[in-house]
């Protein structure tokens, strides 16, 4: 029996194609960086400093996107920088999501004193200015990949906790939750089997958003030289270097900036696209 | 004692009034059920009517222990379940089920119909779930292919049938139906009521039917409890309630029933 309410297959939207495409491209570039990068990202050649990208007069065809003031290849540095950016995005994003979403789910569904404790903690946490808090944490923990990840998780779990709590509270008042109790499902069972699937689209959208934010935070930290070691290629570090010579060599600033921008945009659009795609209820 | 599904004595339940909660200290309590006593014999179709805020839904939710009463006793087939905790209730839960008012919110939007009906069966350790699911769909008059559908792909009446299928799949002794037709249009209402009547007869169910609509209750129920502000003002067989109402409030309710011909009176 088919009628107007039968399932409609939705096409994968342009949004999902573009954002997914860029992220995939970036992941391939990052993973294969040692194979496809045209130069060693750390190799300095002072005689080939500030070479413009190939389509500008006076360029060296060996350096597609030009070189910085120390003669390092911009394209290779962007590719190697993607390794750090994506590692931070995936690891920090996932950890933040796991911790924040779990706490939010428990607070929103169990309510009572558990909710009181978690919510007050979130309130207090959010009173700290996030970037200063991150810099403070790095100063205490020392620089390095683990420190960056810890800083992002410690700062941003509240984002998940708040949103997931609100969503779990809404779902908790629905009758399907009461009906699960009527048939004898345990409280924890109801939370995982009934509520979690309904909160999942929100969590997915937030997760990719968080990955974008993690990329930004990593860029900010490397911009102020609090990321990994100073000479390692990072997008934030490149932007900081490019800023000082923007009038002589704009490409050193512009290309990492565009990459950063597209990556963050793609992550947030990917989340929205996935949320729509996986929701069985047509909006 | 024997032959009674429910024995309810002096049931009291109150909610905290958060609107009048002082900054420090506990919120004042509003008594919603003010000492109710009644019995539900096996096989009876009991109607519970009352206006909005009369406590009829609260009474229903206390009977299937979604809410815990403050005092009084609720005996289900002789077992005191007034203050039983969830683990103690779990084995009993398959014997009293509930059909909810809003079938959109009572069916998990991320589950297929088959999964929704199978859920209770699996939880209660019933073997051969998929056959039981198809059987339940047959009984409520839905095509078997609907097992693969999501709730939003069904109409309101079809969704309420899924709610009924979920409740009867466990073959309970008692079903509470809380305003189950108030969200449906008149023709779907009639179909769902016919179905319910049939199931009560075939399965020998005891049913408590909560509604604000006396004409619906009159069709279905053998006895009526009329509630007003948390108290039972009338508890009598259907015919007697309609012919010789005792309480003033019942008379008011009867006069509020819209009749096809305004000059006609209930004969």
List keywords for this structure.
heterodimer, A: 283 residues, mainly alpha, MetI-like fold, 10 helices, elongated, B: 6-stranded mixed sheet, globular, cell membrane (chain A), BP-dependent_transpt_permease (chain A), MetI-like_sf (chain A), Peptide/nickel transport system permease protein (chain A)
Give a written overview of the molecule.
The complex is a heterodimer of chains A (283) and B (267). With 283 residues, chain A is mainly alpha-helical. Chain A has a single domain, classed as MetI-like fold. Chain A has 10 helices and no strands. Chain A has helices at residues 14-31, 33-36, 74-110, 112-126, 130-141, 145-172, 175-182, 187-223, 235-244, 250-278. Chain A is elongated, with a radius of gyration of 23 Å. The two termini of chain B are 36 Å apart. In chain B, a hairpin with a 2-residue loop joins β4 and β5 (79-80). Chain B has a domain at 106-170. In chain B, the strands form 2 sheets. A 6-stranded mixed sheet of chain B has the order 6-7-8-3-9-10, with helices on both faces. In chain B, α4 (113-123) crosses α5 (129-139) and α5 (129-139) packs across α6. The model of chain B has no long low-confidence stretch (mean pLDDT 88). Chain B has 267 residues and is of the alpha/beta class. Helices cover 36% and strands 25% of the residues of chain B. Chain B has helices spanning 56-63, 86-93, 103-106, 113-123, 129-139, 156-169, 186-203, 214-220, 238-243, 248-255; strands at residues 4-16, 29-41, 45-50, 71-76, 79-80, 96-99, 174-178, 206-211, 223-228, 231-237. The chains are: A mainly alpha (283), B alpha/beta (267). The interface between A and B is medium-sized, with 23 and 35 residues. Chain B: InterPro entries: AAA+_ATPase, ABC_transp_ATP-bind, ABC_transporter-like_ATP-bd, ABC_transporter-like_CS, P-loop_NTPase. Chain B: This is Peptide/nickel transport system ATP-binding protein. Chain B: It comes from Lutimaribacter saemankumensis. Chain B: Belongs to the ABC transporter superfamily. Chain B: Pfam families: ABC_tran.
